[in-house]
Every structure is written in structure tokens, then in C-alpha cells.
């Protein structure tokens, strides 16, 4: 059976020689990837110092060596993710890429693209276009990172961000929110890497632009 084109909306009109991903986007993507790896692995070490649940992460996959070192790595990753994320969002808004790449989005379109993907019939012929499942996933991870940052502020400066702490249900609830947001981000990365393995030219495009 022929592959089904992703989504049903018209593709954006771009110059034929335009890169799939502009240089600023590729740079920010890899900086975000670095920040996420640093924050997640150092976060696992911080978690191990005071576990929420009946398990800890193997020391070999954590970063920092000890609690103080992990906190330093975590803060470094946090500031990189924060400033790079703000710039990423600003550039997407300023260039119109946010609306062009991630919208329109509908439950019906997502269901159609997800069904086609599960049947192995979703086309990846045009790497310039995101299908609706991709759009939803990328918008979700942006929101998830925002939750990570906000809950992280509560854990870092609980007294100063007392209103935010109370909105999250208290300090311990904020810890759980932070952990769940981290777990969801890790799951997104795992699925993202699996999709890259299935469509390897997407990695080339993120490195070279085309």
C-alpha cells in the first residue's frame, strides 16, 4: 500500500534551496540536547540522595559523583536550558516557524497520523513537514520543560517561590511533579531517538541542515 502523506494541511511555501533546519535552530537543538543530558543524569544523582520511591538509579549512569557535584552540574545545565530555551522560543516566534511547523493541530489529524504510523504507512518523504503526532509531541515537550523549570525553582528556592510552591501542593508535591516531568522528558528522548533510528536522514538534516 502507498504511504499516507503526513497530515492534510498544505505544506509551507519555502525557497527550493532553503535548508530543512536553519543554522540557529540546529545550534540550539544540540545545546538543548546537551543541557537535557546534563540535567537528567545529574538529577538522577540528586534523586539518589533522597529517593522518592523504592529505587535508586545506578551510580554509573549519574553525573556529579556526589550530591554537591551533582547540584553544580544540575545548575549549569539548568541555566543553559533556560536561556537557550527562551532564545529558541523567541526565534521560533519571530521567524513564524512556531505557527508554520506546529500548527494547525487537531485531534482528528493526530488520530489519522497516529493510525497511519502504527500501520507503517505514514510517509516521511518531505522532511520539511512535521506530521500531527510530531507537532503534538514537540509542543508537549516544550510544556514539559516549562513544568520542569517551574518545579525546579520551587525545589531550589522554596521560600522565595512560596506562591508557586503552594500552587503545586507543597514542597513534596513539587518534588513529585519534577520527577514525573523528568520521566516524561526521558521517555520523549527515548522515542525521539527511536524515530531518528528509523529515519536516519533526519539526523543528517539536523547536523548539516539538508
UniProtKB/TrEMBL annotation:
Keywords in alphabetical order: Cell membrane, Electron transport, Heme, Iron, Membrane, Metal-binding, Transmembrane, Transmembrane helix, Transport
Domain Cytochrome b561 bacterial/Ni-hydrogenase: 21-209
GO molecular function, one term: iron ion binding
Predominant location category: membrane
Entry's Gene Ontology BP terms: respiratory electron transport chain
Compartments where located: Cell membrane
GO cellular component, one term: plasma membrane
Keyword Iron tagged: yes
TM segment ranges: 30-47, 73-91, 136-156, 176-200
Leader sequence residues: none
Taxonomic superkingdom: Bacteria
Membrane topology note: Multi-pass membrane protein
Record SUPFAM superfamilies: Transmembrane di-heme cytochromes
Family of this protein: Belongs to the HupC/HyaC/HydC family.
UniProt cross-references to PANTHER family, sorted A to Z: CYTOCHROME YDHU-RELATED (PTHR30485:SF1), NI/FE-HYDROGENASE 1 B-TYPE CYTOCHROME SUBUNIT (PTHR30485)
Name of this protein: Cytochrome b/b6 domain-containing protein
Organism, scientific name: Achromobacter denitrificans
Amino acid at each position: 500500500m502507498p504511504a499516507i502523506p503526513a497530515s492534510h494541511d498544505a505544506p509551507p511555501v519555502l525557497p527550493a534551496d532553503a535548508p530543512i533546519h536553519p543554522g540557529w535552530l540546529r545550534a540550539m537543538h544540540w545545546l538543548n540536547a546537551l543541557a537535557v543530558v546534563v540535567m537528567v543524569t545529574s538529577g538522577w544523582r540528586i534523586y539518589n540522595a533522597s529517593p522518592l520511591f523504592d529505587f535508586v538509579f545506578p551510580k554509573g549512569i549519574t553525573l556529579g559523583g556526589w550530591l554537591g557535584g551533582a547540584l553544580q552540574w544540575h545548575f549549569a545545565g539548568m541555566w543553559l536550558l533556560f536561556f537557550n530555551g527562551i532564545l529558541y522560543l523567541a526565534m521560533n516566534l519571530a521567524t513564524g516557524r512556531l505557527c508554520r511547523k506546529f500548527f494547525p493541530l487537531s485531534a482528528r489529524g493526530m488520530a489519522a497520523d497516529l493510525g497511519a504510523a502504527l500501520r507503517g504507512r505514514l510517509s516521511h518523504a518531505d522532511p520539511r513537514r512535521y506530521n500531527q503526532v510530531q507537532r503534538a509531541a514537540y509542543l508537549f515537550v516544550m510544556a514539559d520543560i516549562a513544568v520542569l523549570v517551574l518545579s525546579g525553582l520551587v525545589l531550589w528556592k522554596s521560600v522565595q517561590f512560596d506562591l508557586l510552591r503552594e500552587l503545586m501542593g507543597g514542597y513534596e508535591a513539587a518534588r513529585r511533579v519534577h520527577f514525573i516531568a523528568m520521566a516524561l522528558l526521558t521517555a520523549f528522548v527515548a522515542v525521539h531517538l527511536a524515530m531518528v533510528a528509523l529515519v536516519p536522514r533526519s539526523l543528517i538534516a539536523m547536523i548539516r541542515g539538508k
